[in-house]
Design a protein that fits this description.
2 domains, alpha+beta, 156 residues
């Protein structure tokens, strides 16, 4: 199953959200749905980017430490979102915090190690990519970085 199809399938398991999206689209509104751990939030999608909206909704992340999102342009069809993806987050005191390589307390020290003399050329390249990536790209890299940290601990 394609990644986008998985998110759409998950979205379809929230009939109230599906109905709200259809209603807002019929009113000519752009819509965004953010999916958390067994809950979703449907909102209009004006000028805010999805990352800003994710910080506002205070959903618990899904099992993979991500929030999923879907977006529709005004006049679109509920079964045809124009964007779907995930955002890596952590929840602290009911506030959603978004990561970058510089602010990621869990991975920052390991990334510095991997980018230095001790990491392999592959790890060095991945760590460098993490440090120069924008927030959206870092969110995509983070699950892989966590796996690599387990595979290549600093004391190897």
């Amino acid at each position: 199953m394609i990644f986008c199809d998985q998110i759409v399938k998950e979205f379809n398991s929230y009939p109230d959200s599906v109905g709200k999206v259809a209603e807002l689209l019929a009113e000519g509104r752009s819509v965004c749905v953010i999916l958390g751990d067994h809950e979703s939030v449907t909102t209009t999608w004006d000028d805010d980017d999805i990352f800003t909206m994710a910080k506002k909704v205070e959903l618990e992340p899904r099992e993979d430490d991500n929030l999923a999102y879907l977006g529709w342009e005004a006049g679109g069809k509920v079964d045809q979102p124009i964007v779907a993806g995930t955002i890596t987050v952590t929840t602290r005191n009911a506030n959603v915090e978004l990561y970058s390589a510089f602010t990621d307390e869990e991975l920052h020290d390991w990334l510095v190690w991997a980018a230095g003399e001790h990491g392999t050329s592959f790890l060095h390249a991945i760590a460098e990519a993490a440090f120069v990536s924008d927030l959206r790209d870092y969110y995509s890299l983070r699950p892989t970085l966590k796996k690599l940290k387990r595979m290549y601990p600093e004391n190897m």
